[in-house]
Write a structure and sequence with these properties.
The complex is a heterodimer of chains A (about 350) and B (about 400). Chain A is built from 14 helices and no strands. Chain A is mainly alpha-helical. Chain B has about 400 residues and is mostly helical. At the A-B interface, helix 4, helix 11 and helix 14 of A face helix 2, helix 6, helix 7, helix 12 and helix 14 of B.
Chain lengths: ~350, ~400
Amino acid sequence: MDIYAIPVIGIIVQFLGYLVEHIPSSGPSIVAVATPLGFGALCGVVCERSGVVNIGIEGTMLTAAFTGWVGSIAAVSILGAGTPGPLGITPALLVGLVAAILSAVAISLLHAWLSISLRVDQIISGTIINILAFGVTGYLNNVIAAQSPTSAGTFQKIVAPQGLTDLPIIGWLIESLVSQGPITISLLVSVVVLQLLLFRSRWGLRTRAVGEHPKAAETVGIDVIRLRYRNVLIAGVFAGLGGAWLSMEVTGSFQAGMTAGRGFIALAAMIVGRWTPLGAFGAALFFALFMVLGDLIGPNGISPPVGDLGVIVKAIPSQLFSALPYLATIVVLAGLIGRSAPPAADGRPYEREATT
Amino acid sequence: MTGPLAFLRRRRSGAAQGGTQLRTTIVLPVVAVLLSILIGSVFVYAAAWIKDGKIVNPAQPVAAYWALIQGSLLSFDAIVTTLVFTSPLVFGGLAVALGFKAGLFNIGVLGQLLMGVLASVAVGVALAGQPVIIAAPLAFVAGTLAGALMGWIPGYLKAATGAHEVVTTIMLNYIAADILAAMVAGPLRVPRAQAPITYDVGHAALPIFLGKTGHVGLIVAVIAAVFVWWLLYRTTIGFEIRTAGINPDAARYAGMRPRRIIPLTMAMSGGLAGMAGAGELLGVVHSTQTSYATTVGFDAIAVALLARSNPLAVLPAAFLFGAMRAGAGPMQVVAKTPRELVDVLQGVILIVLVALPVVARALGGRGARAVPVEAQTITASYAGETVSS
């Protein structure tokens, strides 16, 4: 069949139809894949709402993924594998989770020290963190992987009650949100809680004040430096969970550079979501859709489309489908950014005026 | 102080502080390298401890560093190897430095390099039977242009829509890797080859003039450094680039157009990164598989920061990291220390480089800024300040 004889509008309709048909069944994997993007974006929201740009999310998540994996395999070799409790939780995995979060907070502390105290340019600081994280994890991974350690396995998914998932129309939504591992569930909880805290609590008001107009915040008695430190460290917890998902909920292993740009897609999700937790999570879901789409629609995919759409998909080299989420990020960022304004003091180091 | 022409004042006061200049351009990098060697030793011990459960050889770091130096500097062949590793770092370092000068952060050197690899292998294979004098330059130029196009895209997007290059260039890195894979597995693939691989570029390969591996790309790299310096400091467009980098408001006030300068600078920056790819493909590997592994993307940022985005200082900075990359292989073989130690050293050098001057100043010294002043423009445009006019 001649590929140029296919009408464009017909194809778009077919594609939309394909999405409507397949998104419900892929819902759980889309939400799961959105987890590191969502946590990365929450990390970005908390940092930038208080006026600190964090380009180092990628490196922070990579470090957390690594230490989570190392912590869990070390615990396995000392404590033994243990019997998995509910959700596949074992002592080893808990040790790994704690290690992941602590290391992410430590990296965040480095970023906070560089950018808040030393007032090093924040984009340079974040970039250096990315380079350092890539180097250190790659080096140590090389050494540790040579010992062929026993994996601690992964967290397991909740099985949603069949009565709920069989409900018409909303059944797939419930399954998507509930049939998840503990880290993904904690993202869903974090998004809602953070949205409330940021816009309905004293901490949220202070955080936004510090991000919009730190001098005014200081005049009403808010310690700008301290609040920024605290928020960057809290944000580190989110990045830590995002990294932990990579090495302990989806794979149970670590590969060098396994974040694969997710920290930057997370930044884009934060921007597209206008620096709100809910919006950022929505954008993360959108980018996750494109990550899943390649595995679904591609020539080697789970359910390749039929008809004219199938002809077009077969004509595209399979390697290009893995470029989809990155392409979608650029397109959305270029299309939306003019209408999305960051906090006014974002990226500006705060210098207390001399009192003497 | 913050008026539109404040950048002029900053220059004048900078020239008066000759001592500080010397300290930041020479002493600071040396201290950073020495400290990284010290901290790197900890990682060498860590590797030994993980492997054997105890530290067998207390002199292990010395052995590792000695192997690294021996493999990169202590013989004619080693020096040539170092120069071959240096060449792409010069191009890449210049690409990042040129971007910095315009207040742009090109983290997309990797993607632009991969496009340079792709275009130069495509043209090189097509011209493989032609005379060297025609084939090699054309293939090299093709790689340069492909890199320039790949750099122009985020530049255009920033000028037209405000999408920040820190995100878009990274995304393009991954997209470039996928495009290269698709092309090598598709149209460029040698039929019936076991794994997808391209043909050899034949006569399009860059001639060797030094030792066994020293290709003509080394000379092009030096010329490129001088050219970028000349462009930045001796031409009108260079003045516009530097003004846009230090103070976009002043540039606009003076009738310059950042909207035009941003895509142009990014295209030139991408072209330099494309040269890195073309030089590697045509000068070293001569054909490629679906994935092209390289560390030049990150190394280029380190080189530009170490050189404080001075095009001529890029040469020694690139030589330093080139020597590390050249010595990393021998170090792994001789001293059994993983070659990724160089990545660790690089990260530590960068941290020390940005943190040390500020710490020194806090302790009462007269340290100066380590990061390029133009970084403020990068961050300001990330945080929503408009670039259009």
